[in-house]
Design goal:
Layout (H helix, E strand, L loop, with lengths): L1 E6 L6 H12 L2 E4 H11 L2 H10 L7 H14 L5 E5 L5 H13 L6 E6 L2 H15 L7 H15 L1 H8 L3 E5 L4 H16 L1
Parallel strand pairs: 1-3, 1-4, 2-3, 4-5
The chain binds adenosine-5'-diphosphate (ADP) and magnesium ion.
Length: 192
């Protein structure tokens, strides 16, 4: 099985690269952001609670996203592997993911982090906000808060995988195909 954590701040290109990776490797894409946005769209209780936090650029509680991932792993038992996009976003989430995967007799193959500077992130997210309809992409203040939340709570997750010898950083600026090739090369190396 190939289980990839695609890591990086909002706007780093995780969604963009995931679309290409799922086709090449036949993986199931698990984006907690997308899962939460569909709960919001469906008007569920969970969605209503999540929206209040997301609208402030804050993370949704660990147990909520861990529960969603647990359900998705259960539903996709015959998958060739998974891309985790936007998850884990805290060290406790990373620990929970290790436990869940162990229950399914598998583990994370590698984490690939897309490295993009704050100025480029802001530029991309404001551009995405013009078409995505995502309320959290539409003002610079909120984008700054999301990047701060990322730096405070999520960046340490890289160290968690690095300690396990499962971490690679890739330049996330430039041609989308080139970045994709670099990610594939890392996957190749980690799968050996
Ligand atoms: N290599 C890249 N160069 C320029 N823009 C990019 C690149 N990768 C992604 N983008 C754009 O940046 C925005 C954020 O990308 P996305 O994949 O949604 O990021 P994430 O899922 O990490 O938040 C999108 O509008 C996308 O088109
Ligand atoms: Mg995304």
């Amino acid at each position: 099985m190939l289980n990839l954590v695609l890591f990086g701040p909002p706007g780093a290109g995780k969604g963009t690269q995931s679309e290409k990776l799922i086709l090449k490797y036949n993986l199931v894409h698990l984006s907690t952001g997308d899962l939460l946005r569909s709960q919001i769209a469906a008007g569920t209780e969970l969605g209503l609670r999540a929206k209040q936090l997301m609208d402030q650029g804050l993370l949704v509680p660990d147990e909520v996203v861990i529960g969603m991932i647990e359900n998705k792993l259960q539903e996709n038992q015959s998958a060739a592997g998974f891309i985790f996009d936007g998850f884990p976003r805290t060290v406790p989430q990373a620990e929970a993911l290790d436990q869940l995967l162990a229950q399914h007799n598998t583990q994370i193959t590698t984490m690939v982090a897309l490295v993009v500077d704050d100025e480029e992130l802001t530029r991309r997210l404001l551009l995405r906000g013009q078409t995505s309809g995502r309320p959290d992409d539409q003002n610079e203040e909120l984008i700054r808060r999301r990047v701060k939340e990322y730096n405070d709570k999520t960046a340490p997750v890289a160290g968690y995988y690095n300690q396990q010898g499962k971490f690679a950083a890739i330049d996330g600026i430039g041609n989308i195909e080139t970045i994709f090739d670099h990610i594939c090369a890392e996957i190749q190396q980690a799968s050996n």
